[in-house]
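Q: Okay, next protein. This is Polygalacturonase from Gossypium australe. I've checked the sequence twice, so it should be correct. Can you predict the 3D structure?
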Amino acid sequence: MAKLIMPFHQVLQLLFFIFSCLFFVTIQSRHHYGHSEQEQFHIVSHVSLPPSLAPEAAVARPSYSVFNVLDFGAVGDGVTDDTQAFKLAWDMACQIKSAVLLVPDGYSFMLQSTIFAGPCKTVGLVFRIDGILMPPDGPDSWPRNISKRQWLVFYRINGMSMQGGGLVDGKGENWWNLPCKPHKGVNGTTMPGPCDSPVAIRFFMSSNLTVKGLKIKNGPQFHFRFDACHGVRVESLTIKAPAQSPNTDGIHIENTNNVQIYNSIISNGDDCISIGAGCYDVDINNITCGPSHGISIGSLGINKSRACVSNISVSDSVIQHSNNGIRIKTWQGGSGCVSKVEFSNIHMEAVRNPIIIDQYYCLTKNCSNQTSAVVINDISYSNIKGSFDVRSPPMSFACSDSIPCTNLKLTQVELLPAAKGRTVANPFCWNAYGTVLKQTIPPVYCLMEETNATIDNTLPCG
């Protein structure tokens, strides 16, 4: 068979013709369909490709507008009043879909008492504190026409995150030294005079909040307070104030639900965390607390008020060198209930009252006995271990004369004297009913059997 031999120049002509045809088809296809190059690939291809991720450019990503308070006239020298600049920045950020209000590093900003109000149009507003925030230095520097009960208030905010590596310095010392404060008088008494002191940061009627990574110190009164809020996550905070600073609760919640408080260090002059009336679904985990007054539910039922608290969990935490450990405190004469509370995996170090229920809470020695009380029911203590200050018993369940505590459950509770050579004190019980599921140290023989309790437990929580 004769071989077909094509001259070289004809080969080049043939290749050029094929290439031209392919190029023309591609151009015509793009022009006809009017799609992008990526879309055109799928249109002209007759090969069934496996599904793949969308191209990166097509993935929706939030684009945040940054509102630096310096751009709105803030000076940041720690002396100049920067309140107006912050309010202007807030008003602008509040109107943008995705915004960051930036408090920049390297500056100290002094703010008067201010309300940052919503609702905002922003989805996921970030209040980022990288610098230092501070109020006027004490009551004498506070403007006369401005409330002394609060400093920074966030009102009707949904979906805000307060975060950053900065510091909030409450400058509380001059407030602590007011004559009315209990440590100023003889034997803890108070003296006449004005006593209002501001909460450092308060969230009111707000939802879906995150507070993360901040340092806050020396609050004039409470450091953080959440009132009438829903959906609160607090994480990785450091809160510090002297052990003798009065009423400087680290985090206080009231009428607030769906709360998570995690991975934080709190050292102050009152409760590390305090849970007030109307709170439920609260999870507290991995807290290092103390010196302080411990982690408390209450006080509840003051002035014959009704208070309900339920579904509370405190776990995997350390309480050290504190007046109290885990505490429930109520006033006589109140109503409502505390129920479904679980304390678990908590280590005590030289705590004066590691486990305490006090239904005779009173700030003076003149509180009269009352017949009504907040019901306390279904409280669990599990794996509570460590040491206690022998000035008080390691466990105390002081329940109402008329309405006993019921369904108390203890398991793996081991508390020994902090001082070597001291004898183990006996737990104290008064009108308390419950069960020891596993032998405790010291033994709790004073709890009464549940079948002997006579109690009206019909009051619902919630």
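A: Here is a summary of the prediction. The domain at 72-181+196-438 is CATH 2.160.20.10 (Pectate Lyase C-like). DSSP finds four helices and 30 strands in the chain.
Q: Noted. On to the next one.
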